[in-house]
Design a protein that fits this description.
By secondary structure, the protein is mainly α. It folds into two domains: 221 residues, no CATH class; 160 residues, Cytochrome Bc1 Complex, Chain D, domain 2, CATH 1.10.760. The protein is 32% helix and 8% strand. The strands form four sheets. A two-stranded antiparallel ribbon has the order 1-3. Strands 2-6 form a two-stranded antiparallel sheet. Strands 4-5 form a two-stranded antiparallel ribbon. A hairpin with a 5-residue loop joins strand 4 and strand 5. Helix 1 packs across helix 2, helix 2 crosses helix 8 and helix 6 crosses helix 8. The radius of gyration is 21 Å and the shape is globular. Keywords: Heme, Iron, Metal-binding, Signal. This is Cytochrome c domain-containing protein. It holds the Pfam family DHOR.
């Protein structure tokens, strides 16, 4: 406990020293502490740590910022032999109903503390698909599917949090019975809040999203995900033996709130230059039906180009792994704001960053988006180019 209090005190002092205004608001201080935590490199615990066993035992990265460098995304780093060497792409595992693999859990962790071997490596084949290699426990169980997930951009999350739940539900109701069948997902159960964060809308709050990242990517426990071994399973004896500390969460609720506050404080990407012709084509092709240009909030329109609903996008966008209650082909409509920056960085589009540009991403849209894709592809060449340029400018 003394170690935890000392860390919090040090972070508070660091944040206070960086505060430009002498009378900083409490929310600003929270965000500054959160930024320090977001950038902090976590380390494994020691035998003397009784309340905190530290990083791992299995993990993908040592810091949140390692996966989300620059906040806007970056290309997936791949060695000449196809091995993924960066931290911004992971492999998820599940069966078609969302149940995790009995040996590997929900995610392949590519690093371990001393004495704990990584679960495997991630490699990219000649077709741009990712798979598990050098697996520590053999192939995943029968029926378990593997799917890559690229780290998403983080700007503007606070604005998405401000969209009233009633507005999301109203959009779902307006689409019921038509060609679109967008639906709200409640990750905490039928009476819980609506999910709006994550590629599958599996987190209703930024705090829940942060807790998931601590558990799966860093192997650190929180109140929401208290397992001290993170994604370690009962089959992984070395991982279980390396767990130290007691049953208390390693990352307290206050630290989770600080990081969530920092993420909420990140300003949305700048609005693109007006392009009435591009906007018209975007609407006429049907893209705006799901990628809604604006959602309401108490602080004004949220111009994120999403409806925050799950849509079935067909077999070309089958993500392999999924979550309970969500089909492998269902995705939350990805916000398009910041797309120009992501493309400029060469970060790739879609959940696994496989699309190099807008045209390729559109071509993979099927299911509920098939009619819009056909309308876009049927446009005269000049208008199609104008539409794709407009989307790429967002």
């Amino acid at each position: 406990m003394r170690r935890r209090l000392a860390l919090a005190a040090a972070l508070t002092a660091m944040a206070a020293a960086q505060t430009a205004a002498p009378a900083a608001q409490a929310g600003d201080l929270d965000a500054l502490i959160g930024r320090a935590l977001f950038r902090r490199a976590w380390i494994p615990g020691t035998a003397s740590a009784t309340a905190n066993d530290g990083l791992g035992p299995l993990y993908n990265a040592r810091a949140c910022s390692a996966c989300h460098q620059g906040l806007d995304g970056r290309p997936v780093a791949v060695a000449p032999d196809g091995r993924v060497t960066g931290e911004n792409l992971v492999l998820r595992l599940s069966d078609a109903a969302g149940a995790p693999d009995p040996a590997y859990g929900r995610q392949i962790q590519t690093a371990g503390v001393p004495g704990v071997d990584p679960e495997g490596t991630v490699r990219r084949d000649g077709n741009g698909r990712y798979h598990l290699a050098d697996s520590a426990y053999g192939p995943p169980a029968a029926g378990v599917r593997v799917g890559a997930r690229a780290a998403p951009p983080l700007r503007g999350l606070g604005r998405l949090a401000a969209v009233p739940e009633a507005a999301i539900l109203a959009l779902a109701a307006s689409q019921a019975g038509g060609g679109l069948r967008g639906r709200a997902h409640r990750p905490e159960g039928p009476e819980g809040p609506v999910g709006r964060f994550g590629a599958k809308a599996t987190a209703a709050t930024l705090e829940a999203q942060v807790a998931t990242a601590f558990a799966l990517d860093l192997g650190l426990s929180t109140a929401e995900r208290p397992a001290p071994g993170g994604d370690c399973t009962r089959i992984q004896a070395a991982c279980l033996a390396a767990v130290r500390g007691d049953a208390r969460p390693e990352i307290g609720a206050a630290l989770v709130r600080h990081i969530a506050r920092y993420l909420a404080s990140l300003e949305p990407p700048p609005a693109p230059a007006p392009d009435p012709a591009g906007e018209r084509l975007f609407a006429e092709a049907g893209c705006a039906a799901c990628h809604r240009p604006a959602l309401p909030s108490p602080d004004g329109p949220v111009r994120a180009f999403t409806d925050l609903l799950l849509h079935d996008l067909g077999p070309d966008l089958d993500g392999g792994a999924t979550e309970p209650g969500i089909a492998p082909t269902e995705w939350r409509t990805a916000p398009l704001w910041g797309l120009a920056r992501r493309l400029a960085l060469g970060a790739g589009l879609l959940h696994d960053a496989r699309a190099a540009g807008v045209a390729q991403a559109v071509r993979l849209h099927g299911g509920e988006a098939a009619a819009s894709r056909r309308r876009a592809e049927a446009l005269p060449e000049a208008e199609r180019a104008r539409l794709f340029a407009y989307v790429g400018s967002l």
